[in-house]
Amino acid sequence: MHYIYLVVAILFEAFGMAALKASDGFTKTWPALGSLACFGMAVYLLSLILRVLPIGVVYAIWSGVGIVLVAITGFVFFKQSLDAPAYIGIGLIVAGVLVLQLFSTAQA
Question: Where are the domains of the chain?
Fold first, then answer.
């Protein structure tokens, strides 16, 4: 169940980042409120996950998957593109998350 919470928390974080961008520096009310609500839910779910899984593993997965989702969101919704070094860096982050999931014994 904790991995479901982690996936949902990451989705809330990615939605929160998109809403934060759309809020234009908190000058647009609804996107700003949406951003705060999404980040609040993400942190709440993260607090539940940390009861079960080690903080280092959770944060690595959270940040790695979140980076990929936010990069995709930026491309799709905000027409932001990345260059080759950015794609390589994101690929290395994904590789790190995979190493944690496949080979780490630190997971509870």
Answer: 2-103
